[in-house]
Amino acid sequence: MRRRVKGSFSTRRFFLKIDEKSGIPLLGHIAFGVIDRGTNLLQIRATTLCALSCIFCSVDAGPGSTTRLTEYMVDVGYLLRWVEAAVSMKGIDKIHAYLDAVGDPLTHPGIVSLVGGLKSRRWVETVALETHGPLLTRELAERLDEAGLDRLNLSIDALEPGLAKRLAGTPWFDVNRVVDVAEYIASSLNMDLLIAPVWVPGVNDEEIPRIIEWALDIGAGKRWPPLGIQKYEAHKYGRKPRGVKPMRWSEFWRKLEVWEEEYGVRLRLRPEDFGIRKAPPVPSVFRRGERVGVRVVYWGWLKGEWIGVARNRVVTILGVEGEPPLGMRVPVRIVGLKHGIYLGKILA
Ligand code: SF4
Fold first, then answer.
1. Would you identify the CATH topology of the domain 31-274?
2. Residue 186, number of CB atoms within 10 A of its CB
3. How far is the CA of 26 from the centre of ligand 1 (A)?
4. CA-53 nearest atom, ligand 1
5. What fold, for 291-346?
6. Strands 13-18 and 2-6
7. pTM, 2 dp
8. Are 134 and 107 contacting, i.e. CB atoms less than 8 angstroms apart?
9. Residue ranges per structural domain of the chain
10. Cα(57) to centroid of ligand 1, in Å?
């Protein structure tokens, strides 16, 4: 079950394949499985891996990560069973399936079967996937299209190749290859394309209008809006580019309004634009402050964490050091349970 993928005495990294046999549930963790934020959209996270090391990455993914300890990959059949279980616990008829990740969903070798598996379920209304596209090829786009992918949310943060490499923190990253596939999707495939640049103030300001013009030119957004400009935010465990201060939300919305007028396209998006509405959440199995015995199952996603299982949910165990005592039950206090993500602080 356990395999080291990279390491020295100072930077140990682990890799875990999660399947039925692992006994690890797929509700409760932010990095893998199913995330339900109380709407009719479920985030489905099959992998944590990423090939890039974007300088603004909010989840510190990729080879340049300094905070991660473990990368996880989930078996497709097992994941589909948990998505179905989550839908049934929510008690709703239809969901939008959104394949995102604290990495790049396209790093999962079974991503096409995951899309196809979701599309074949009567309770799935649409399937969308987000990526920065370093692994995207015309052939992969065709296979995703045939499997029924409804929309690709493609983040292109700069069209200028040198700046795109710099933003991706990856010298081999070639934005022109991604642009080529994007144009192919917009002109020749059924799936829709939404271009979702991350606007990093002071770094790619001049690229955003260029990207808007290009997205409109190639015909992105046939069924949904063509663009979803994302605001750079400084996250606690994310990477923060030197000298960059996040923009104020008021300033961000004002600028989007100006571009909306200039280009005649809606850029200030709302959940309703994607058919997202509030829906009953998967019921919580813990209460905040509750003391729970948690069985330790593996190293945590980030340094200083283990993962454990209790009441058929994963719990991130905080405040720990060293090797996880696999199979042992440890006492924790539930200190976080937002959106069904469970955090427990170990008790002495
Ligand atoms: S922003 Fe996305 S593509 Fe870039 S390193 Fe993070 S997860 Fe990977």
1. TIM Barrel (3.20.20)
2. 21
3. 22
4. 5
5. OB fold (Dihydrolipoamide Acetyltransferase, E2P) (2.40.50)
6. antiparallel
7. 0.95
8. no
9. 31-274, 291-346
10. 5
